[in-house]
Structures are given as structure tokens and as C-alpha cells.
Amino acid sequence: MIYLLALLPATALTIGGYLVLFVSSRSEGALRTFGKYLAFWAFTLAGLVILGALFAAAAHTGHRCPPYGMRGTHGGMYGPWGGGGRFGPEGQGAPPAPPLPPAGAPNPAGSGNPADNANPPPATAH
Description:
Layout: H1 2-25, H2 30-60, H3 114-118
């Protein structure tokens, strides 16, 4: 769409260049030379406007565009993220840690220290 809007200034520059070229062809001396350079400059600017619009349109193709109902180039910046964390809405992110057992409860898996398992307490006979 941007290249269609660039046609307006490019057309104006082209028409202005031809007008300057026409007027300079009817003059003499330094004014004629200046007119040719000015017309060439107007044609060059018109071409650069078209090239700039084409490059801008090519660079814009991968982005989301707000007029079409999307979120713009920021994508999902303000929505929930897949990795969770502190930026997502409430209730998202990493699951909460399991509650700790009470202080006096025995640990069924052992203490985790290999020295405790190497010398078990002696068994008592009844």
C-alpha cells in the first residue's frame, strides 16, 4: 500500500522535472545548464522515492499491521507468554512448589545423606 502513496510525490517530481527541462531548453547559457541539472535531480528524487517505497513495502511484509485487526509489530508482548514468568497474567507461569511437610514428620525416602544409610541403627529383639 505504501508504494501506491509514493506515486503521488514521484509523479509530482517527474512532472516538475519535465517542466523545468522544457523551460530550460528555451533559455540560454548558464540557466540552460542549471535547468538540465535541476531536471535531472528531480528525476533522480522521483526514482529514489519509488525505490524507498519498494524497500519499505518489502521490509513491512513480515510484520503484523494494526489496520487489519492484529496487534502490530509488538505481537504478543502484552499477552500471555509461552514460557510463563512474571510478565504473564495471574495464574500463569511455573506451577507452585508442593507444600513442605511438617517439621516433625518422618521422611519416607530417608534423609538423603549417604552416611545415615551406611550405619543403620541396630535392630531390637522383643
